[in-house]
Structure prediction request, 114 residues.
Amino acid sequence: MNTMTSQPVTLTQRQKDRFITGWSLAGILLLLPIVVLSWMVVLSGDRGSRCLTYGEQCSTIPGSALYLAFFLALGTGVTALAWPRGTATYARATTVFLQWGAQLVLGAMILDGA
Prediction:
């Protein structure tokens, strides 16, 4: 008798919910460090320090785009955390994906302004 089965391993609903919640919480906790570290990198360069000191060669990315990306990342993260567990798992996972996308785009926009 064969004790090994060839059935694929599937995640239970509870495991999926924990996984999604973990990534959402990690995103929210890393949002401010990403922003702060990105600005530190920008301001430590020639162009960033010149912008800060003399107001020259500053970023062409509008501040409203940065605020939009920040609040989109924050809002989707909070939405994913507040979403009832076990309901619409794929929509909740998509929300976390959008959260991380907005967060990474925000960091890239800050760094691009250097």
Q: What stands out?
A: The helical segments are 13-44, 46-54, 63-82, 89-112. The mean pLDDT is 85. Residues 48 and 54 are 10 Å apart (CA to CA). The two ends are 66 Å apart (CA to CA).
